[in-house]
Amino acid sequence: VGSWLVRGDAARIFARRSPFAAVLPAIVAAVGYLGVTLVWVLLGGGLPGGRWFAVHVFTLGVLTNVILAFSDHFARTVTRTPGDGPSGWWLVVANVGIVAMLAGLPARWLPGLASGAVVVSTAVVANGWRLRRMRRAAVGARFSWIVRVYERAHGAFIHGAVLGALLGVGLVTGPWYGAFRLAHLHAMVLGWGGLTLLATLVFFGPTMARTRIEPGADVRAARALRHGGTGLSVATLALIGVGFGGAWGTASRMVAAVGLGVFALAAVVVLAPVATAAWRAKPSGPRGHVIAVAGWLALVVLADVLVVASGAWRWLDAIGLVALTGVLAQAVVTTLLYLGPMFRVGDGALRETVRQRLERGRSVRLVVVQVAVAWIAVGALPLDRTTPVPWVPWVVLGGVLLAALIEVARPVRPTAPVDAR
Questions:
Q1: Which end of the chain is more exposed for a tag (fewer CB within 10 A), N or C?
Q2: What is the C-alpha to C-alpha distance for residues 212 and 189, in angstroms, rounded to an integer?
Q3: In this structure, are residues 41 and 57 in contact, taking their beta carbons and an 8 Å threshold?
Q4: CB distance 2 to 27 below 8 Å
Q5: Is residue 54 a contact partner of residue 407, using CB atoms and an 8 Å limit?
Q6: Is residue 71 within 8 Å of 196, Cβ to Cβ?
Q7: Residue 402 contacts by C-beta under 8 Å, 6 or more apart in sequence?
């Protein structure tokens, strides 16, 4: 796939004309990590680290590459900052750190964990600092508040990284291990991934669905996410207090539930107009997936509030899998469906050819993906029965991703020039 993407004139045309040229290396890296994630899910029982390792491959490899690239790209867009973003060094550095962390996770190899965590965290802090400078330099930019949300998401990553490091080196044990793990998961999935996705969906969701943003949606989203980010921060801190157990642990859990309730309300305020705008748009490949991402994310945040409030932690695995597959992974695939033609060619007619390829079978693809996500979620529910062939939905999701990649990368035969005589 990589050789197709960089072959000959098509690559030069892409680099010259596509506004998303700067994010292509990160997308390629993220897709590679996504493939590794699927392999570890399918064969995780016999591979180092098991299936829990796959979660880290996804959050570190897929999410971190995508978020670092797109947060910088969209921040430059909404703040009208000139330039194509930082040079490719940050991608190399960040992925060196990611690989070191992943190498250290299965056996708790401390040199790899420590060095990798420092390198990745440094890359995230550097990116967050760039975002802050762009936001403060912007004057009268309508969507500059989105950059502030990106900054909060970067802060959530640092908090999650610290919690994860404490878990990884074995400094947290007993009942505190479960509490720190809960806080770590919420910081990384809902903070690093969720806040970034919510802020981006406000304007990019309708764009992918090829429609306009709902009137007033951005103003409501700015206000909601300001409070939602605070609620998530309070909830993450309160979840650590669950480790006290007894009355103090229960009180901390209730505080966390309230904070997550604020975050869930903010998410619904953001997602409702995005889904409405997409629903009213004309049918297209990304449109249905934008609606599905919004629906699954609303379900995840609301269900999470109920789980935390009740302390029914055994349901959390199913919610987490929906967040990873139905929300975050599907958002990556949706972005690929929308940007794929821009990644492949620069000529308008050839780009339209790739777009039409991706449009074929869009309804079947949409339904198949949602069934696979539901299948995965049901398989993770704490029920007294076994889900048949649990590997099938993962193969289906991998097949959808592979098919999309093939359609994007498959060579496009140029149209024969018209004789002007």
A1: C
A2: 28
A3: no
A4: no
A5: no
A6: yes
A7: none
Please check whether residue 117 is in contact with residue 97, taking contact to mean a CB–CB distance below 8 angstroms.
yes
In one-letter notation, the amino acid at residue 194 is G
Backbone torsions φ then ψ of 19, nearest 5 degrees: -70, -10
Q: Residue 410's pLDDT band (boundaries 50, 70, 90)?
A: confident
Contacts of 129 (CB under 8 A, 6+ apart): none
Q: What is the DSSP letter of 59?
A: I
3-class SS shares of the chain: helix, strand, coil, % to 5:
80, 0, 20
CA 346 to CA 326: how far, in whole Å?
31
Could you tell me which residues come within 8 angstroms of residue 267 by beta carbon, excluding any fewer than 6 positions away?
194, 198, 228, 297, 298, 301
Q: DSSP letters along 309-342, please? A: HHT-GGGHHHHHHHIIIIIIIHHHHHHHHHHHHH
Q: By mean pLDDT, which of 84-88, 95-99, 390-394 is the weakest? A: 84-88
Q: How many CB atoms lie within 10 A of CB 287?
A: 26
Residue 176 to residue 174: CA distance in whole angstroms: 5
pTM tops 0.70 = yes
Distance CA 272, CA 327 (A): 15
Count CB-CB contacts under 10 A for residue 214. Answer: 18
- Chain centroid offset of residue 158 CA: 16
Q: Residue 269: pLDDT band by 50, 70, 90 thresholds?
A: very high
CA atoms within 13 A on the CB side of 309: 11
**How buried is residue 251: exposed, middle or buried, by Cβ count under 10 Å (0-12/13-18/19+)?**
middle
CA-to-CA separations, 110 to 93, 124, 171, 349, in angstroms, rounded: 19, 21, 12, 53
Give the DSSP letter string of 156-225. Answer: HHHHHHHHHHHHHTT---THHHHHHHHHHHIIIIIIIIIIHHHHHHHHHHHHHTTSPPPTTHHHHHHHHH
User: Do the beta carbons of residue 228 and residue 263 sit within 8 Å?
Assistant: yes
- CA 61/CA 354 separation, integer angstroms: 27
Tokens representing 182 are 């809960």
| pLDDT tens digits for range 377-395 | 998 888 766 667 788 999 9
